[in-house]
């Protein structure tokens, strides 16, 4: 596979646009995005597990009941969450308006919103915006769409990959937004992937579920799982490859690329986490079960004490071992080895004398790896997080989500 | 019941002392405490659920196998955690040295440590200190002992209550330390209670377990459960009351006072949480089960986004409802009402128009109450936490725990 430029419009047969419609009064930021496939495709999605799931997610889930879709409409600035029946009506209206301007069925539209909770959508602006946005749709519109879904994000997050499948060139593109309320099981995080691969519904669903568990569900900025999160993929088959079916070589090859791009998107979200000054990769090795490995990696990645220690560039492995100890994962304290990069900090659960200067050199870097070898099984997991800084507090004490 | 002055030496027949032995080189802070009962008493304790439980807790748990104890020895400055066999040897040595100077059995001693993880105790200093501390034991020594267990605490936390039981005056005293790594299930938190009540082992154990679940296990500063936490109670019977047995009027009366003092100690820990500028009381009402009520209250109390919003004095009920939604508690979103103090923010899961000025007036106070009425059952729970401030980051980026 090869990384290429662009995002959701890198694959063939996708158009996109992003414009400002003024969801937040006075803001000139782009806040409405559309992704459109020239033909109806196969789609799959995962949603937040938060019980206060926002109305647009219910509409998207309903529309994706047949795993088919042709367009995606998203706004930022207002989450349309905790808005009850009115919220549902507004989300449905977003799909019907979009369907009408694109000349497709409203049932083939995925809708999402991100922003402030408990506020109704300014439907007059949304309606005018949807009518307007059609004029901006283009094969180069991926970046505008990506910019339009950003909230407290500081960096545009779009990626695209290309690979060969049975003599055909297949592409996958994606755009994502963070950057607070990020936590396993879909936290204020939106991810939209497009591909021109031809793939069966079952194959796409399986691949997407597996990959999400290892990528988007293994990142955390602040441990808060939002009401609005969704990651979805839309495949339109324009690459002309033979339809990818389950348990084939092509399936595995395609899955690898989906994993790669989802990993890149996930890491980009954490790396741009609110106030982040460090990107922390936490590897848990040789756990008894996959679930234990994930629990342990997530527990470390969500510890405020671990995250502040890394912000302070302090080789505080005691906090790592503490988070490991309360993770709920099966652990034998007398077998755990802890590494900071290549440096062993604790052996068999006990303090090691280590070179503080060498540790400081690792801690000064922006990207830091923590390895916990549990030494009781053979299952591994990786989690990603950022440090917890003054800036996180500043952003979240001042921004009403 | 009546609040009285003092702490662990308020009840009859208890002596205590706190001195500086230099556990942290150069520090003049008191760092060694002893509590001594003139006669052997009945004791009960709860310990951290962290799998990397520190060696002193293993020794205490072993010694309390018969639910009897006569003295407590505690140091701050070094947690004696992740110290393996050497740590166990050191903890045992602390009990045997204390036993020797007090002329009691080493098996009747409770031992605890708090401070940096992964560092061995400076046993020469501890040994000299234990020999010295005997000379400082007094009926007025409660405060010195309480000062000696403080780490990043900024306020001494001791409380005492007095009440009548069958014509006798009974007293309970307690001292506690926080103030980071505080989270349900015993996080870097030590609590020591003394009482001159006569009480049966079974009654004390039952009361203590129940009360801890509603108090110390319902507070959170940062969601991190430490390796060293313990809360214990030592009852010496010096008040001369008839022995309190289970399922009696006296049992309930005594339990009420134990609950009161544990609640005061717990709230004091949170109120002095690292960097705290607000004390948040989270009440969850009318949950389906007690477990649901606790889960929901804890989820809100551990949300970084909720905590930073209160630091920013922002009426951000969307973050409260979000934390409720991912708590794992059984919830019907269309039935939840959210209040900030007396002010209704959300009704039946939907945004309410509320008076922002009135909200700001509540938010400006140091003590704030949040009420979530789930309206689907009849079980309630209360959790306490503090806000998340710049100062928390500062303290934890610079302090190696």
Helix share bin of chain A:
25-40%
Determine the mean pLDDT of chain A. Answer: 91
The CATH class assignment of the largest domain in chain A is: Alpha Beta
Oligomer: homodimer
CATH superfamily of the largest domain in chain A: L-amino peptidase D-ALA esterase/amidase
Number of domains of chain A: 2
Q: Could you give a short account of the major beta sheet of chain A?
A: 9 strands, mixed
Globally, the shape of chain A reads globular
The CATH topology of the largest domain in chain A turns out to be L-amino peptidase D-ALA esterase/amidase
By helix and strand content of chain A, what is the structural category?
alpha+beta
Number of strands of chain A: 16
Gyration radius of chain A, rounded: 21 Å
In short:
The structure is a homodimer of 401-residue chains. Chain A has 401 residues and is α+β, with helices and mostly antiparallel strands.
Task: Write up what this structure looks like.
The structure is a homodimer of 401-residue chains. Chain A is of the alpha+beta class and 401 residues long. The first copy, chain A, folds into 2 domains: 2-271, 4-Layer Sandwich (L-amino peptidase D-ALA esterase/amidase); 279-398, Roll (Ubiquitin-like (UB roll)). Chain A has 11 helices and 16 strands. Chain A has helices spanning 55-63, 84-102, 123-133, 142-148, 201-214, 249-271, 290-301, 304-311, 317-325, 356-363, 390-398; strands at residues 2-4, 14-19, 32-47, 68-78, 109-116, 158-165, 168-177, 190-195, 219-220, 230-235, 279-287, 337-340, 343-347, 350-351, 367-373, 379-386. In chain A, strands 1, 2, 3, 4, 5, 6, 7, 8 and 10 form a 9-stranded mixed β-sheet that branches. A 7-stranded mixed β-sheet of chain A has the order 9-16-11-15-12-13-14, with helices on both faces. In chain A, a hairpin with a 2-residue loop joins strand 12 and strand 13. In chain A, helix 2 packs parallel to helix 3 (123-133), helix 5 runs parallel beside helix 6 (249-271) and helix 7 packs across helix 9. The longest helix of chain A is centred in the middle third of the chain and has 23 residues, at 249-271. In chain A, 62% of the residues are buried. The model of chain A has no long low-confidence stretch (mean pLDDT 91). Chains A and B meet through helix 8, helix 9, strand 14 and helix 11 of A and helix 8, helix 9, strand 14 and helix 11 of B.
